[in-house]
Amino acid sequence: MKKWMMMVLMISLVAMPAFAQEAEETEDWVSELAVGFNLSDGNTDKSLLSVGIKADRKWDENEWLNEAEYVYGESDNDKDTDKASASSQYNRLLGERLFAYLRGEALYDDIADVDYRATLGPGMGYYLLKSEKTNLAIEGGVAYIQEKVGGDDNDYMALRFAERWEYAISETASFYESVEYLPEIDDMGTFLVNAEAGLEAALNGSLAMRLAVQDNYDSDPADDREKNDILLTVGLVQKL
Questions:
Q1: Integer Cα distance of 81 and 79 in angstroms
Q2: Average confidence (pLDDT) over 197-221
Q3: What CATH number has the domain bearing residue 121?
Q4: Number of domains comprising the chain
Q5: Is the pTM of this model over 0.70?
């Protein structure tokens, strides 16, 4: 799959819900645009820029969570980060805390030699905590994964275990984290782990500063590639 095709898919995953609703329903959406950056100048010149967008909607017994991000970085004028990702998840509440979900993800990572990785699958989830101040959910299901890594096409079924936590520290500060574990059903020693954590502080009513760290682990990466990939960004978040 070509890079531009992956970008179209990623943009569609996030943009589709926003165009699927009538104008009078826009107040149900909670959206944000985030721009992150890292710069250093000295023995090693490093620069990194990330752009991300989130668009979530919750109504009646439904939740629709969408996000996409593109990250590009250089070290001493050599590209060392070039990654795009997107996800879309629909939750159908079956009670106050129990829900069924359908989730799709897409990834492109030039440095890790991942031409594409597409993931789709259903599952069940449960809110261990659910209030205005904090939400803690656990999820479990299956996923079909199709990918091209290191020039080789592959597809397989995986289990999916995940948790996500959002916590309002105060009226102006919040914390979030999530972990996703995807072991291959036919070979549990082959797995993916995606984790993220972030701390956010409001600068005014609609603008905030965010410090975020992402950790992506692939137990079977492309040849001559590292298994672990950690990314740290500092940036601004504009609530839309």
A1: 6
A2: 92
A3: 2.40.160.40
A4: 1
A5: yes
